[in-house]
Write a structure and sequence with these properties.
The chain is of the alpha/beta class. The protein has one domain (3-314): TIM Barrel, CATH 3.20.20. The chain has helices at residues 3-9, 29-35, 76-87, 102-114, 144-155, 189-202, 215-227, 246-254, 260-268, 272-293, 306-314; strands at 14-19, 45-48, 54-59, 65-70, 90-96, 119-123, 173-178, 206-211, 234-238, 297-301. Strands 1-2-5-6-7-8-9-10 form an 8-stranded parallel β-barrel, surrounded by 6 helices. β3 and β4 form a beta hairpin. The longest helix has 22 residues, at 272-293. The chain is globular. The structure holds flavin-adenine dinucleotide. Flavin-adenine dinucleotide (FAD) is lined by residues 49-50, 94, 96, 123-126, 143-145, 177, 183, 185-186, 192, 195, 199, 208, 210, 237. Residues 49-50, 94, 96, 123-126, 143-145, 177, 183, 185-186, 192, 195, 199, 208, 210, 237 line the site of flavin-adenine dinucleotide.
Length: 317
């Protein structure tokens, strides 16, 4: 079932989770071990992130180095199919522009369609770790909106190969990313919101946000979206804080701020176990307030911390 239909039919605030594919070499059981305890909350769907390959240097016997392309976390499409099969719950693959030509994207979408997956979170992706800025693949897309248009075309039976006439139509429900604290490349929030509206006007059915810890920022973001005519559901992305290290790592990677109250409490903590308690309590209060505000879904980035997310969601049901 599509995300948008889950939301339309919901009587209460829905719960959804997000997982990362395991590192190459690990089995699908590591995903099941991660998700098993969380399934008691009957999530409406599970998102599976996508990770492009990175260039690495491998030392050879003669002391020189070979540049190799490594995909550390393959398997997004397979994991989605496995989750749907194993738990009978919907899975939402993330699909990105980075590293793909339009034709490769089309083939991936056909795979998803054949597997009965009719949801996709459509993203641009970031630059590979050792590159400064995002560069589209030759024959690929520069922005998420271009990929949205390709998915919408496929939903209308329009393929890259113009010789395909009366092509089978897919029926993807498209989600897109939104940034309550602005995407880091956007010159200002106003322009970023305008770009977001373009994605919605191009065919996105809902917005899923970047993680944030200050609900006020989310409320202002929703208000600003509504003012410029974005009507689709906006789903907050929520992440538990479990270590002091995250105070500097998360702002650096995700360009998000910590509210002063939260950072003050974390700095006072002596151990990461203490930080986890603070982070859990914060997320419980944050989730309760968002629920009261009337968000359609609480979406949790479970990344490696299913127990903490379990402790939070247990307080909400
Ligand atoms: P876009 O919407 O294309 O926007 C990128 C930037 O370009 C923005 O600054 C925007 O304002 C600007 N822009 C947009 N359109 C135009 C235009 N036509 N002209 C000029 N400027 C424009 N990354 C992954 O690699 N894998 C994942 O699984 C993944 N999951 C994510 C899930 C969520 C909920 C979120 C919020 C992010 C996720 N990301 C993921 C990260 C995402 O790929 C990055 O944040 C990326 O930098 C931007 O992606 P986007 O889809 O928002 O890009």
């Amino acid at each position: 079932m599509k995300v948008i239909d889950h939301i339309a039919q919901a009587k209460n605030t829905l719960i959804s989770f997000e997982v990362l594919p395991p590192l190459k070499g690990k089995s699908i059981n590591s995903i099941y071990d991660h998700l098993d305890p969380l399934m008691e909350f009957k999530p409406s769907w599970i998102n599976v992130t996508y990770h492009r390959s990175e260039s690495m240097f491998k030392k050879k016997a003669d002391g020189t180095f070979d540049k190799v392309e490594v995909r550390k976390r393959p398997g997004t499409v397979g994991i989605c199919a496995a989750i749907m099969n194993h738990y009978k719950v919907d899975a939402v693959p993330h699909i990105i522009c980075g590293g793909f030509t339009k034709r490769e994207t089309e083939d991936a979408l056909i795979d998803l369609n054949f597997l009965g997956i009719d949801n996709a979170l459509v993203l641009r992706g970031d630059a590979p770790k050792n590159e400064v800025s995002f560069e589209p693949e030759p024959g690929g897309h520069a922005y998420a909106i271009d990929l949205i248009k390709q998915v919408v075309n496929l939903n209308n039976g329009l393929y890259q190969d113009e010789d395909i006439l009366n092509g089978g139509k897919t029926d993807f429900c498209i989600g897109v990313a939104g940034y309550p604290e602005k995407h880091f490349e956007a010159p200002n929030l106003e322009i970023d919101l305008r770009r977001l509206k373009e994605k919605v006007d191009a065919g996105a059915c809902y917005i899923m946000t970047q993680m944030f810890w200050d609900n006020q920022k989310f409320f202002e973001f929703v208000k600003a979206c509504r003012i410029i005519g974005i009507q689709v559901p906006i789903i907050p992305g929520l992440k538990p804080i479990t270590s002091r290290k995250q105070l500097s790592v998360l702002p650096r990677i995700f360009h998000v701020d910590f509210p002063t109250d939260l950072s003050t409490e974390i700095i006072k903590c002596k151990t990461d176990a203490d930080v986890e308690l603070v982070g859990t309590e914060w997320l419980i209060q944050q989730s309760k307030e968002l629920k009261e505000f009337g968000v359609p879904v609480l979406h949790y980035y479970t990344l490696g911390k299913p127990k903490v997310v379990w402790n939070v969601v247990k307080q909400l049901v």
